[in-house]
Amino acid sequence: MNSKPVGIFGGTFDPVHYGHLRLAEEMLELANLRQIRFIPTGTPPHRAAPQVSAQHRSAMVQLAIADQPAFMLDDREVKRTTPCYTVDTLRELRADLGTAQPLCLLMGGDAFLQLHTWHEWEQLFELAHIVVGYRPGFTIDERIHSATAELQQHYQQRLCTADDLSRQPSGGIAELAIPKLEISATDIRRRVAEKRTIRYLLPNAVANYIHQHHLYKPC
Q1: Which of 55, 105, 172, 200 has the maximal Cβ count within 10 Å?
Q2: Which domains, from first to last, does the chain contain?
Q3: Long-range pairs for 207-214: beta carbons < 8 A, 24 or more residues apart
Q4: Is cis: bond before 40, omega within 30 of 0?
Q5: First and final CA of the chain: distance in angstroms?
Q6: Coil, helix or strand at residue 159
Q7: How many CA atoms does the CB half-sphere of 218 hold within 13 Å?
Q8: What is the greatest pairwise CA distance in the chain?
Q9: How many Å apart are CA 90 and CA 128, to the nearest integer?
Q10: pLDDT tens-digit map of 150-194
């Protein structure tokens, strides 16, 4: 088996910005992915509800990725009325794409070290690979001692290279050194509320959408 993997990139995207887009672009290249699906979260179980509606967040993602044919909006989670668990989304994707298609769940190092808190977290490895982006010179191996014994065991047994991701449909953990842009959605929302510029933090099309729909402004 040797099929290019499909990347799964979930998040609130409230709003989507260049930090998200650069991370996705780097992972697309370094993990040799065929496609990355951006999946805006509907009702996230691990964090506060997004500030704007699912429809607005999906629309902003669609605008942000319009010029990259390898990026795709997948709105299955925002259509749900119940809490969105990643394991359920991966099960749906498996049903859609088949058991042989390699899937890669994309995340940062901090999220990976908290993986044991996710719903049915050990089932994630049966459904997808996990690709962890980390700052250059700062590996997960240096921090894994802070994780649970179960997660440490999975890390030690499943660690693989990016080239290995296309050889099996799921089960691996790959690490990628990716420079991080210091951009946050929280800062963008605060800037909009304070009537400060958000230029060069996100695509112009997204900035225009925010202004046109009066998003993130004080009530």
Answers
A1: 105
A2: 6-182 (3.40.50.620)
A3: 209/56, 209/59, 209/60, 209/63, 210/15, 210/60, 213/56
A4: no
A5: 54
A6: strand
A7: 5
A8: 54
A9: 7
A10: 999 999 999 999 999 999 999 999 999 998 899 999 999 999 999
